[in-house]
Design goal:
Helix 1 crosses helix 3. The chain is an alpha+beta fold. The chain is elongated, with a radius of gyration of 20 Å. It has a 4-stranded antiparallel β-sheet with strand order 2-3-1-4, with helices on one face. It has 2 domains: about 40 residues, Arc Repressor Mutant, subunit A; about 70 residues, 2-Layer Sandwich (Alpha-Beta Plaits), CATH 3.30.70. A hairpin with a 6-residue loop joins strand 2 and strand 3.
């Protein structure tokens, strides 16, 4: 269970995980040695799974963003989800089984992907929604 100190540290790391212990101290007034030991504990117990970066979609040439609902008749092979265009996949309730967030260079790359997805014998149906504007993406 996370306590108030852990939550303060995580809040700062979510804003910028490159912050130094001193920077986090200045914002939280938690001693740097405590911050360090808490971060190590959070890593060990997998509360913090990894540190990563957020890139600019346009600069990365991935600014064609699509959400795809997938209805399947059995489990789609995990190998398929390793494609670099697939950013997030969630199992969902309702008429569809999965929702995928995908990013593409252009509509042509998206078209190639959706045709490949629909050829999978496990896929019964898809519903595609193209993003028109990014309002908020990260917490």
């Amino acid at each position: 269970m996370l306590d108030k100190t852990d939550k303060k540290i995580i809040k700062q790391l979510k804003k910028d995980s490159r912050q130094s212990l001193k920077d986090i101290f200045e914002k939280t007034k938690i001693r740097p040695s405590t911050i360090h030991s808490r971060i190590q504990k959070l890593l060990e117990d997998n509360t913090i799974e990894k540190f990563s970066i957020v890139t600019n979609d346009k600069t990365m040439n991935e600014d064609f963003i699509v959400f795809i609902l997938v209805n399947s008749n059995k489990e789609i092979p995990n190998l398929f989800f390793k494609k670099s265009c697939i950013k997030d996949v969630f199992g969902i309730t309702g008429s569809y089984d999965l929702v995928m967030k995908c990013k593409f260079q252009n509509i042509g790359k998206f078209n190639d992907f959706i045709l490949e997805l629909r050829k999978l014998p496990e896929v019964k149906d898809t519903l595609t929604m193209v993003s028109t504007i990014k309002i908020k993406e990260r917490l």
